[in-house]
Amino acid sequence: MFDEVVVAVLINQSKAGLFTVEERLEMLAEVVAPYPNVRVDAFQGLLVDFCHANEVGAIVKGVRVASDFDYELQMAQMNLGLGGIETLFMPTNPKFSFVSSSLIKEVAKWGGDISPHVPDLVANRLRERFASAGQPSRN
C-alpha cells in the first residue's frame, strides 16, 4: 500500500515504560530489519507535526475492539483538523484481538509463555528484564 512505512514511537515523558525509548527503538529496528521500506523513529509533541516534518501522508492505526475504534476515531478527526493528515484503520486478526502490551507484560512478569504473541526478540528481552528485576519464572 505504501512505498515507505514509518513506525513512530511517541516519547511520553509522563509515562515510565518498562523499556527506554532507545531500547524500544532498538527492538523495533531489529524486528523490521527484513523490510527495507520500513523505518523506525521517535517523536515528541503532536503526531501531525511529526507527519509534516517527515512527509508522512497518512497514519495507519490498528484497532482490536470497538472501544479502540471509538478512541482512535477522535484522534483521527483531531489529526485531520489540525494538520490535514488522514488516518486509515486496520482491524486486527481476531486471534490477536485480546492482546495488549499491558497483558503481555503481566503474563511475562509471571513467567507465562508470550512467544505466540510477540517476536522472539521481544519475548527474550521481556524475560531478561523481569529476571533482572527478581520476578518469578516458570522456565
TrEMBL record:
It comes from Dactylosporangium sucinum. Belongs to the bacterial CoaD family. The lineage of its organism: Bacteria, Bacillati, Actinomycetota, Actinomycetes, Micromonosporales. GO terms for molecular function: ATP binding; pantetheine-phosphate adenylyltransferase activity. GO terms for cellular component: cytoplasm. Residues 1-106 form the Cytidyltransferase-like domain. This is Phosphopantetheine adenylyltransferase. Homohexamer. GO terms for biological process: coenzyme A biosynthetic process. ATP binds at G62, V63, R64, E72, F96, S97, F98, V99, S100, S101, S102. It catalyses: (R)-4'-phosphopantetheine + ATP + H(+) = 3'-dephospho-CoA + diphosphate. It holds the Pfam family CTP_transf_like. Its cofactor is Mg(2+). Reversibly transfers an adenylyl group from ATP to 4'-phosphopantetheine, yielding dephospho-CoA (dPCoA) and pyrophosphate. Its EC number is 2.7.7.3. Pathway: Cofactor biosynthesis; coenzyme A biosynthesis; CoA from (R)-pantothenate: step 4/5. It is found in: Cytoplasm. Substrate binds at K15, L47, K61. Keywords: ATP-binding, Coenzyme A biosynthesis, Cytoplasm, Magnesium, Nucleotide-binding, Nucleotidyltransferase, Transferase.
